[in-house]
């Protein structure tokens, strides 16, 4: 095979310089031997400052175990090593030249570390090839964000932003199973707005919707982050209170009941006051199925309504 002539090398250097990827060649001492135009443009470092300079002098943040291990692996084993932006955002911390087009200021990169062999088949240099994959990363990020948002919307009640019935019931089943492995008590509370039909009939559905939104806000304001709050349907709400016994559940219910009773809803030129009735069921060894737990809480709620409303009752009392 003929040795490449000067013209061949000239064309090769032209390709290296003009390609839209970064190319760096380093020796065993991590000194730079090739530093193409892509790298020059994005680092704002010219070839006169890069060639024969330690890569660590130009990029001090590369002097870590992660980078050294990859380069040394290529030298020692003679194999290529790949790194994607999902594993590490980038190798070279380059700012984007046109960040206005993206929701990030940073270039995402895929990087390949390639063994470069001498005529004696020894790995003498390592080539580092840098691909700008910001488009892919940003689009993937947008896709993941959209998926997360769709998942959230599929689980959320549109009017109140509480968990909807379907997702809340999934959480109830999970909590039921978790509680079987724990000695901590968990309480389920169900409540609804007293005489809600009268509110709708007297003031209209917009006022009724605002009443539900107000209850939902007070509901969340009076709950812990670990409490699992949901809208079960219409004017009916549910909450799981992890690691909460019956006395704790009573305190919670009384606090919520008073907060709602003391609140006036102003909507459509009307001022409306109302109350809620609540039922509590503590998960115990007698509750064999998640549906039984819900039925027990509903029975306690029914007792509150039958006893005059605006109060809390506990299943089994």
Question: Any chance you could write out the topology, listing elements then pairs?
Answer:
Elements: H1 6-18, E1 22-26, E2 32-35, H2 37-43, H3 47-50, H4 55-58, H5 65-77, E3 81-83, E4 109-117, E5 123-132, H6 134-155, H7 165-179, E6 187-193, H8 196-203, H9 205-221, E7 228-233, E8 236-241, H10 246-261, E9 265-267, E10 270-272, E11 276-282, H11 290-306, E12 312-314
Parallel strand pairs: 11-12
Antiparallel strand pairs: 1-2, 1-5, 3-4, 4-5, 6-8, 6-11, 7-8, 9-10
Helix pairs in contact: 8-9
Which stretches of 5+ consecutive residues score pLDDT under 50?
1-10
C-alpha termini separation: 96 Å
What about the largest sheet? Answer: 5 strands, antiparallel
Number of E-state strands: 12
Q: State the helical fraction.
A: 40-55%
Give the SSE string. Answer: HEEHHHHEEEHHEHHEEHEEEHE
Shape: elongated
Radius of gyration: 33 Å
Whole-number average pLDDT?
90
Order the strands across the largest sheet as they lie in space.
2-1-5-4-3
* CATH H-level homologous superfamily name of the largest domain: Reverse transcriptase/Diguanylate cyclase domain
Concise summary:
One of its GO terms (cellular component) is plasma membrane. The chain has helices at residues 6-18, 37-43, 47-50, 55-58, 65-77, 134-155, 165-179, 196-203, 205-221, 246-261, 290-306, and strands at 22-26, 32-35, 81-83, 109-117, 123-132, 187-193, 228-233, 236-241, 265-267, 270-272, 276-282, 312-314. The chain has 317 residues and is an alpha+beta fold.
Keywords:
alpha+beta, Alpha-Beta Plaits, 11 helices, about 325 residues, elongated
